[in-house]
Design goal:
Layout (H helix, E strand, L loop, with lengths): L2 E5 L2 E4 L4 E8 L5 E9 L6 E7 L3 E4 L7 E6 L4 E6 L8 E9 L4 E4 L3 E6 L1
Parallel strand pairs: 2-11
Antiparallel strand pairs: 1-3, 3-8, 4-5, 4-9, 5-6, 7-8, 9-10, 9-11
Length: about 120
């Protein structure tokens, strides 16, 4: 089972930046992409960004141009660089890993990001 651990959340003022990290361990060779999702209070979890080992990154319209997803060390670490943060970016951010050709089966515990106005 792939295990994911996020870090890097915190409190930042609007317009500021944060960098989230997601470290994966276990059988990562069974996965083909990693992604970030977020869930704000009272709202459903939503997609933020994903990076596929062969296709590259994709973003939600709400973060395109402000957030950058990247990876290193093969499939073991993913990052989410968040710039020009807005109060509406406040949420718990989750890292997820997708089984090859399947669903996002593995999830981290989440890290809180709070953007003050």
């Amino acid at each position: 089972q792939v295990q994911l651990v996020e870090s890097g959340g915190g409190l930042v003022q609007a317009g500021g930046s944060l960098r989230l990290s997601c470290s994966a361990s276990g059988p990562t060779s069974t996965t083909d992409s990693m992604a970030w999702f977020r869930q704000a209070p009272g709202k459903e979890r939503e997609f933020v960004a994903t990076i596929n080992w062969s296709e590259g990154p994709h973003y939600s319209d709400s973060v395109k141009g402000r957030f950058t997803i990247s990876r290193e060390n093969g499939k073991s670490t993913a990052y989410l660089q968040m710039n020009s943060l807005k109060p509406e970016d406040t949420a718990v951010y989750y890292c997820a890993s997708r089984i090859i050709g399947g669903r996002f089966a593995y999830w981290g515990q989440g890290t809180q990001v709070t953007v003050s106005s």
